[in-house]
């Protein structure tokens, strides 16, 4: 602690843990891993598990209302982990410190997973053009990283979905160090299920 902090009192903000990324990038799996590691999840179980996410979505519905000004719930998320899609990160209030696990995934896998979800819901899977969506998503990811880099109250660890599935313990250890070193890494790694690696990128 610096001399000024000692003199005027600590100004440290409460910490909220966040899992983020594009939809269908592996964020639900990461939430389950962190829960197993010992961090309580901020969830409401309104969205139930289904064939697209058989182990659950791990969502908190009010997150989706942040762009409309509903952020008072964040006070309840201190020392917990909450899933926030990348498009909503900028709406998190500045009163807190955020440690973000940002999950990346091959773009063609994300698009294939989203397309399959539409099929499973009986919706038109051809309503989106993959090339256009990929371009939009990539621009969004670039802009989001630039924004995150400029925030003093955000710390971010980028992890890749395929790396987690191919070598879970190495990735879990990185996450554990980033989050303070007190997680149950064996329990976290045990949550990784390679059988759920559907829509895998073609080599």
Characteristic key phrases:
single chain, 7 helices, 203 residues, 4 strands, 12% strand, alpha/beta, four-stranded parallel sheet, Rossmann fold, disordered N terminus
User: Which residues form runs of ≥5 with pLDDT under 50?
Assistant: 1-6, 198-203
CATH-defined fold name: Rossmann fold
| Total DSSP E strands | 4
Tally the helices. 7
What letter string, H or E per element, gives the SSE order? Answer: HEHEEHHEHHH
Number of domains: 1
CATH class: Alpha Beta
What's the N-to-C terminus distance? Answer: 50 Å
Shape: globular
**Proportion in helices:** 25-40%
Question: What is the second-level CATH architecture?
Answer: 3-Layer(aba) Sandwich
The CATH homologous superfamily is termed P-loop containing nucleotide triphosphate hydrolases
The major pleated sheet works out as: 4 strands, parallel
Instruction: Report strand order across the widest sheet.
Output: 2-1-3-4
Mean pLDDT: 84
Beta-strand percentage range: 5-15%
Estimated structural class: alpha/beta
Rg: 18 Å
Report on this model:
This protein has 203 residues and is an alpha/beta fold. It has one domain: P-loop containing nucleotide triphosphate hydrolases (Rossmann fold, 3-Layer(aba) Sandwich). It is built from seven helices and four strands. The protein has helices at residues 3-8, 27-37, 107-120, 130-149, 161-166, 168-178, 185-190; strands at residues 15-21, 81-83, 97-104, 154-160. The chain has a four-stranded parallel β-sheet. Helix 2 links the parallel strand 1 and strand 2 (81-83).
């Amino acid at each position: 602690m610096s001399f000024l902090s000692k003199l005027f009192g600590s100004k440290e903000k409460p910490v909220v843990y966040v899992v983020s990324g594009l939809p269908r990038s592996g964020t639900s799996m990461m939430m389950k891993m962190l829960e197993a590691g010992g961090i309580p999840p901020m969830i409401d179980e309104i969205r139930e598990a289904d064939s697209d996410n058989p182990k659950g979505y791990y969502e908190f519905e009010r997150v989706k209302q942040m762009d409309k000004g509903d952020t008072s719930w964040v006070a309840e998320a201190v020392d917990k982990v909450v899933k926030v899609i990348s498009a909503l990160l900028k709406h998190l209030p500045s009163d807190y410190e955020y440690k973000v696990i940002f999950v990346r995934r091959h773009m063609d896998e994300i698009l294939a997973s989203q397309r399959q979800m539409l099929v499973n819901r009986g919706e038109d899977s051809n309503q989106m053009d993959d090339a256009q969506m990929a371009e939009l998503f990539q621009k969004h990811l670039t802009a989001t990283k630039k924004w995150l880099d400029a925030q003093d109250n955000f710390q971010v660890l980028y992890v890749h979905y395929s790396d987690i599935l191919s070598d879970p313990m190495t990735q879990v250890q990185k996450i554990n160090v980033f989050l303070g070193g007190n997680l149950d890494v064996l329990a976290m790694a045990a949550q990784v299920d390679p059988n759920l690696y559907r829509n895998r990128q073609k080599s």
